Amino acid sequence: MQPQLNQIILFEHGSYNGQTRVIDLNNFTPNAVHSFSGTSMQDKASSVRWCLPPGRVVTFCEHVKSPRLPDLSGLGRTIDLIGDGTVREWNLTSRGVGDCLSAFFWRNVDLERGYLIFYRDSQYSDYRQTVFLSEWAPNQAHSVSSWAIQDRMSSVQWVKLDPRVIVELYDTSSGGGSSYRNIVRRDPNGGVEGISSLSSVGMQDKVSSFKIVEKLPVVEEIQAIEIDRRQFPRKSVTIESKGSVTGTQNASIYTANVTKSWTESSTVTVEQSHSTGGTLSYQYSTGGTAFAKNTISVSLRYDYTHTRSDSSSKSEVIQISHQESYPIPPNHAWKFQLILRYDQIDTEFTTHATRWYDIPLLGTTEDTTKIPGRTLYRRVEAVKGVLKGNFAFKTESVFDATPL
Fold first, then answer.
1. Strand-pair category, 252-270 with 87-91
2. Helix, strand, or coil (residue 229)
3. For 126-144, b where at least 16 C-beta lie within 10 A, e where not — what string?
4. Is the fold of 1-109 the same as that of 114-214?
5. Domain locations in the chain?
6. Contact criterion met (CB below 8 Å) for 397 and 341
7. What is the pLDDT of residues 245-266, one digit of tens each?
8. Are 163 and 361 in contact (CB under 8 A)?
9. For residues 359 and 366, what is the distance between their CA atoms, to the nearest angstrom?
10. Which of the residue ranges 92-101, 218-227, 281-290 would you say has the lowest mean pLDDT?
11. By the 8 A CB rule, do 8 and 92 touch?
12. DSSP type of residue 309
């Protein structure tokens, strides 16, 4: 029996047979614990097959509780199914959770920052509980005192860990006492790394909290983003006046004197996995004059003294002024239009940031030239995001006179 995309099949026996229960995630809301306690599959599932979209994660748990997810407090033993778009299968008994599951929750997870797996026994065996870095706030201790793994952890693995992150383990729930502060990515290919026995670092059966420490750069330089406006829709706003001249043999003069405020609005959002914390801000330029260039240059920066924010918006007020006189022949109707043409941009971008750190991280190069007398460690990192906005391009005036 094979699952369709977005489905999980629980099997009664470890050989993928016996009673089954099909869970179709289309029928369940995300980020909420859903119980199958009281059904024929409660505490009976011994194997599982699943097919989930990439980045979708389903966590099955032993108990029916409602903690503030992704906190696993009170949920007992858990197992995480990670989607990659293909059919996968596991024997649950060999992973320490056979005949004990009664609930689940699902959500979409940014896997780019990596994840940790805490194991009950050494050599990465028995039941395990997973921490996906993108789901947890950095630079603060997170208690696992009500998790099944608390004071029982014997080994730990980490997968594709963000190279800018150090994960620390503590033996108190508040991030104190004995600790191990050296979980870092060392594999340039992003493979599975780990400590097969926490007794080797003095943390066997001691872990009660963890902290995700983000290393912030000492200096950074982010390349400006250059965007060609011509590939996006050009729209317009029109200011119009009209009238007529009758009963005279002499020409008249219409003087247009228009002053108008128009707001350029824009938003830049960067992928969280590429932000090392801090508040995003940006500036943009459309050229040396108010209008007319076919490119927009966007400059990004982070203020690392503030809380993380990966989105920033701006409103720039543009003053439009036009003054000109037009002759109107007798017995003619006339119409004046001032047209503001603007580009409506919605585009993804990729740029690069050169960042200097105060400790060597994976992929960094020692640099003694950036700050004289100080050794820093340089690395170029990708920055991806989206720019949306309406940007003024030029104004045009049109005056027409037609006989009555």
1. unpaired
2. helix
3. bbbbbbbbbbbebeebbbb
4. yes
5. 1-109, 114-214, 219-403
6. no
7. 887 677 889 999 988 899 999 9
8. yes
9. 9
10. 281-290
11. no
12. B
CA distance 11 to 253: 88
DSSP 111: G
**Token match 């599951």: residue?**
101
* Cα–Cα distance measured from residue 204 to residue 195, given in angstroms and rounded to the nearest whole number: 11
Residues 134 and 110: beta-carbon distance below 8 Å: yes
Q: In terms of Cα–Cα distance, which of 66, 56, 6 is closest to 35?
A: 66
Both tokens assigned to 251: 């020409």
SS3 call for 26 = helix
Q: Which two tokens stand for residue 153?
A: 């952890």
CATH code of 219-403, in short, is 2.170.15.10
Determine if the peptide bond prior to 70 is cis (ω within 30°). yes
Question: Would you say residue 289 has pLDDT above 80?
Answer: no
Q: Which fold has domain 114-214?
A: Gamma-B Crystallin; domain 1 (2.60.20)
> Please, are residues 327 and 338 in contact by the beta-carbon 8 Å criterion?
no
Q: Is 14 exposed, middle or buried (0-12, 13-18, 19+ CB in 10 A)?
A: middle
Residue 188's CB is within 10 A of a number of other CB atoms, namely 9
Question: Domain 1-109 - what CATH class?
Answer: mainly beta
